[in-house]
Structures are given as C-alpha cells and as structure tokens.
Write a structure and sequence with these properties.
alpha/beta; five-stranded mixed β-sheet; 12 helices
Length: 295
C-alpha cells in the first residue's frame, strides 16, 4: 500500500492521529522535501514519529518515482507531505503512477495553506483562483499571475498568492556543466511579492494600461502559518513591500470585495496606520463594498 500523509503546517505534532498510526506501521517512510517546509527539521520528525525518514527531493519524486513505487509493491510505504497531500500537482502524478502500476493507495488529509489562510479573517468562499508568484530574474519576469488576480477582483474575489521557494536549485551554469552544486535556499517574502506587484503596476501605468491594482490596494501578509509564532499583517501593497514578517514561509492575499465582518477581522491585524485603517473604515455600514482599486 502507498499512503500519502499530510503533516499539517506547524511542527511534528501537527500530524493527525490517523497519520501517525500509518507512519509507525509503514516499512519505509519518505519525506517530501521541496514543495514546502515545517518549522522543524527531519530529525525532530524522526524523534516524534519514532521512525527513520528518507528525504524525497524533487529529482526522486519527479524523475525516479518508480523507486518509491517499487517498494510500495512489496510493503507499506508512506509518503509525507507538508500541508495536505494534494497541495501540489506532483503528488497527483504519484497517485496516477501507482494506479497504473496496480498499487493501492490511501490518503490521510491534513490542514494546508489553502484552508488555514482563513485565519486572516477573509471568508473561504470569497476566494478565487490561487496563484503562484515566482522569483523574477534579469531575463524572466512573468506577469500571468497578476492577470489572474485582476480576474478574481473583477468577480469581487480574494486571491491567495503562494510565494516561490528555491530549495536545492542549481544555477544555469552548473546545470549545463553537470555539476551537482546547489544554490543557497531562498524563500520569497510577502514584501518581495508586494514589490513585484508594484513593479507591474508601475510598468502598466507607464504603458498607458489600466493596472487594476494600486499601491493602496489592501492585502494581507501571512508568515509561518500554523506555527506558534505565526504573523498576520493587514496593509496596503506599498506598506507590505516594506514589512518584515520574519522567517519563512510567507503567503500574500490580495483582497477583493470585503464584507463588513471581513473588514472587522482584518482590522485585528492592521498596525496603527492611517492608510490601512481608512480603507477598512470604508467598508463599515455597507454589506458589500469593493476593496480599494477593485474594478
């Protein structure tokens, strides 16, 4: 049997009782180590689970999945995923491979950023399509995620932005030379994501295009969701670009149409800043009021 087990978002204790029972009975346990991360390392998980873990990095999961499935044909194998097992498309591919190979599978779900982000005060049924914001390079600066944010806002919906992380990545030079030399890990911050959005706004204004967002658009930064020291901050985009929310992982939410209850909740996470509080006051007394810059 192949088990896909969600680990939740905080630390080793966030695994469910069912998930822990599965881990402890499996002969081999893999820890997926590239789509997200917990606040504790592999050693802490091994100590709590009472089980040795094998790190499953991107190459193993995406290019050598047969290695995992080979063992699952002969014994119980657990594949551990931070958050929920289906938070990344890679894991759907692993299930499809298992089915084609005639290997039964079971899924043990857990909390993920997709539902836990509701702690910021925005109602889950008011979210639109989730987007990924990637690190820009000198030669590659995609804006497709921005247009999806605008589509959500046109429908009055909030947008959860999942922010890029680079773990065990190779430079183009080392990749071409076949050298197994890896770059330092990088995790995009809410401030960096806001800065990229502001750059797109600036470009589109210069080109005479309607940017759809402004530097005063209301957003919410979330850091270390599920951990004891999680941080939530309500701010405008320009303010968020200057915010230090601390250690990773970060996410960013761009607000759509705000219900008065949502505005009340967002106020809990707003610093005493005139611009942010002014935007939130606009919602008071109105059942449905558009967020700043929403068209």
């Amino acid at each position: 049997m192949l088990y896909l087990v969600g680990l939740g978002l905080g630390d080793a204790t966030d695994i469910t009782v069912k998930g822990l029972e599965v881990v402890r009975k499996c002969s081999r346990v893999y820890l997926e180590a590239y789509t997200s991360m917990l606040s504790v390392g592999k050693e802490a998980l091994e100590e709590f689970y009472g089980k040795e873990l094998t790190l499953a990095e991107r190459d193993l999961v995406e290019q050598e999945a047969d290695e995992i499935l080979k063992h699952a044909k002969e014994m119980d194998v657990a594949f551990l995923v931070v958050g929920d097992p289906f938070g990344a498309t890679t894991h759907s591919d692993l299930v499809l491979r298992a089915v084609r190979a005639g290997i039964p599978y079971q899924v043990v779900h857990n909390a993920s950023v997709m539902n836990a982000v509701g702690c910021c005060g925005l109602q889950m049924y008011n979210f639109g399509e989730t987007v990924s914001v990637v690190f820009w390079t000198d030669l590659w600066r995609p804006e497709s995620f921005y247009d999806k944010i605008l589509q959500n806002r046109a429908a009055g919906l909030h947008t959860l932005c999942l922010l890029d992380l680079k773990v065990k990545e190779q430079s183009l030079e080392n990749l071409m030379r076949g050298k197994k030399i890896y770059e330092p890990s990088r995790f995009m911050t809410a401030a960096q994501a806001a800065a990229q959005l502001l750059e797109i706004i600036r470009r589109r204004n210069e080109c005479g295009q309607e940017p759809g967002l402004t530097e005063d658009t209301l957003c919410v930064g979330v850091a270390r969701l599920g951990a004891a020291d999680q941080e939530i901050r309500t701010a405008t985009l320009s303010q968020m670009s200057l915010c230090d929310l601390g250690a990773p992982l970060h996410s960013l939410v761009i607000t759509g149409r705000l219900h008065p209850l949502e505005a009340d909740m967002l106020r809990l996470h707003a610093r005493d800043c005139d611009a942010t509080l002014t935007h939130l006051r606009r919602v008071e007394g109105s059942e449905h009021t558009a967020a700043p810059g929403c068209h």
